[in-house]
Amino acid sequence: MGSTRAKIAVDAMGGDRAPEEIVAGALRATEELDVDVLLVGDCPRMRSLLGTRADSPHLELVPAEGVIEMDEEPLVALKRKPEASINVAMDLVKQQRAEAVVSAGHSGAAMAAALLRLGRIKGIDRPAIGALLPTMVAGKSVIVLDVGAIVDCRPKYLEQFAIMGTVYSKYVLDVNEPKVGLLNIGEESSKGNDLAARAHKLLAANERIPFIGNAEGRDVLSGEFDVIVCDGFVGNILLKFAEAVGEVMLQIVREELPQGLRGQLGTAMLKPNLRRIKQRMDHAEHGGALLFGVAGICVIGHGSSQAPSIFNAIRFAQEAIDHRVLERIRSYYSNDCEAGTATVARATDG
């Protein structure tokens, strides 16, 4: 396998459409992206899907036995199936044979496997899943975290989410001065529940977080914010709602296009515009969400992912590798410790 290309382990058995769609997306990634892919799973089955392309110099098949099913309890299943595809994929990163993992399988199992196999970044108490959402500003996305990793949060977790989101926004999304918001029910600092009020104080007190205040639900997609932080319970609901809105809008556009010859001509003329609309609104264009806080790059894809989503998830992982997101987050906390500049007002966290 190439020495200068990013190496990404892909859980070929995870997801509703595995392994066919996973293999197809991974194969496309090796052809169009500067990546080498380690496909983890049932080798005979993967080889039959790949045919002669199984011998690609940028593709490696890694054997695994079993998969964590969606109805299984993650920790129990991971221990009972040590050779399951997600476990093997995480081990490849731990062994430095790969730089990232992509999985569209059981999200809870992927997070648990990452924590068990890779551990957390020093200074991070809990991981967060960060998802990119489109905004009303063309070409601009907002990263929301957490969207499902930690349902019950403490204020300091939200502070850490804000730091990791800021790093990603600055170095991957290329935002010079990211604007961080705390998802809340009002703009005033006194609004919200106890978690929101205490988190607001921490975020405002941390000089290294470009915090500009609370963000209401209507502000999330406005483009005013670059990073939105919230607990995983609220974030997951927000993510699923945003995905549904995108799907509804795309369906409305399709239904409202004229029918017959007139419709065909109109659609042909509007095709570039329709393509851009889809790219801005379709969650499949991002491929998945990044698991922040673990000592390795891990992208969690949608369970229903098809080949294009897997391709984009691999591209998502490649961007995190190329922009050294992991190293930059580690650097933030190592510098913070060396300088002795631990965030003030920790006592308010309880």
UniProtKB/TrEMBL annotation:
Pfam families: FA_synthesis. Keywords: Acyltransferase, Cytoplasm, Lipid biosynthesis, Lipid metabolism, Phospholipid biosynthesis, Phospholipid metabolism, Transferase. Its EC number is 2.3.1.274. It catalyses: a fatty acyl-[ACP] + phosphate = an acyl phosphate + holo-[ACP]. GO terms for biological process: fatty acid biosynthetic process; phospholipid biosynthetic process. InterPro entries: FA_synthesis, Phospholipid_synth_PlsX-like. It is found in: Cytoplasm. One of its GO terms (molecular function) is phosphate:acyl-[acyl carrier protein] acyltransferase activity. The keyword Magnesium does not apply. It comes from the Bacteria. Pathway: Lipid metabolism; phospholipid metabolism. Catalyzes the reversible formation of acyl-phosphate (acyl-PO(4)) from acyl-[acyl-carrier-protein] (acyl-ACP). This enzyme utilizes acyl-ACP as fatty acyl donor, but not acyl-CoA. HAMAP family: PlsX (MF_00019). Homodimer. Probably interacts with PlsY. This is Phosphate acyltransferase. It comes from Rubidibacter lacunae KORDI 51-2. The lineage of its organism: Bacteria, Bacillati, Cyanobacteriota, Cyanophyceae, Oscillatoriophycideae. The gene is plsX.
